[in-house]
Specification:
By secondary structure, this protein is α+β, with helices and mostly antiparallel strands. About 40% of the residues lie in helices and about 30% in strands.
Amino acid sequence: MDSPQPPVILTPAKRRAMVYLKLGSICLLLLMLQIPLVMTNGVLQERQRYRLQVTEEIAGIWGRHQLVTGPVLAVPYAYRATVIHSRVVNGRAVQVEETELTGAVAYFLPEVLGVNGNVEPELRHRGIYDTVVYSSKLKVTGYFLPDFAVAGIEADRIDWDRARVLFDVSDLHGARSVGPLKFGDNREAVFEAAENVAGTFRPLVAKAAGVTASAKWEFAMDAVLQGSERLEIAPVGKATSVALQSSWPNPSFMGASLPVTRQLGSEGFKAEWQVAHFSRGFPQSWSNRLVKDEDMAGKIGAASFGVRFTQPVDAYSMADRAQKYGILFFVLVFTVFFLFEVTAALRIHPLQYALVGVALCLFFLGFLALSEFWPTGWAYAAAATGCTLMISLYAWSFLKTGWRTLVIGGGLAATYGYLYFVLKSLDYALVAGTAALFGALALVMFCTRRINWYELDVPGTQNAGAAQQ
């Protein structure tokens, strides 16, 4: 009959080496757990692409973001220019300079431009995805005061009869109705679609009958536009004032100018802009003879401003931000497990660490999946509760006592709750997250302040040595 094998007695150096080996295996496991986090992030990006595709489809049918430019007065004129022609003189080709009339277009912006609009956004759904679209009613008023001499445009012949008013929206598909253009003398002109008039705009065109030099020419018009995501106005007036109101409670004001006054509330917003011509970066009048059409169009677009109809922090953005805190969950839970091993003589296998880490990864995938069908808060709560219960019940099997399990479960629940607060607090997310890290590190330092790390031992080895003796 074989005698039992005596227990192995480890020297202090070997026991410390085993502790460090355990720490190394935990660190290696932390790195390996980044793989499922990356895979979960890949799923998130794929779902975001699906949503973007749906958003583009809805916007293509309803109307994309709208940039309103105009009205702008375009007046054709002719000027004398010296041109060089080839002529045959005495059987030889010679270059001859000649003076002839050449055509160009002068553009005049309104002296005063006022835009008053009411915007009604709504959510449109397709499948499990939704996007914000809007219908806007704009009332545009103002007046022109065209003067070639003041503008410094040399003209030998001005064709006032062919003067046109241009009004441009970036997506004509979303223009439900525009005009008619009403003049100060009660006359009207109907807007018609035109292709690339003079190259600067892709506008609607109306006849400017009766406009003359240096005469005040008042106008008024209405426009009903459909669009999505954002509405922008180009400040083409020498003095531009814009007033927008909407029932959307989460506006994001954007562009080259911010509102001078705004009122925000749960029932919507009201905002007013005031822009002077010297702050917008382009002149009050110009000619396509001297200024490239593309350059002027770019300057006008760069000076635009408006409002973006954003949704509150959605599930995808919250899931993306939550995944950035994944390593924090691993470190906190594994630190508690290792401290239990050091202080309570427990033996926790690396595989048990790994299973708990995988369970923590499943929280992010579960939150992402549930958020596509449930409200964000409910989806987060369900995923966090399921993950906390699964880890707590599993940890009970090797932590041996209920209070240790309660530490793990309560700590996870508190961490998930605080993370939700951080994710919802856009403005204070950084300071809240940093405070949480400071607090967690301070707690670990407090709990380990009495541990002599030079005398660390693998649980069970000392008892085995004592029994042998």
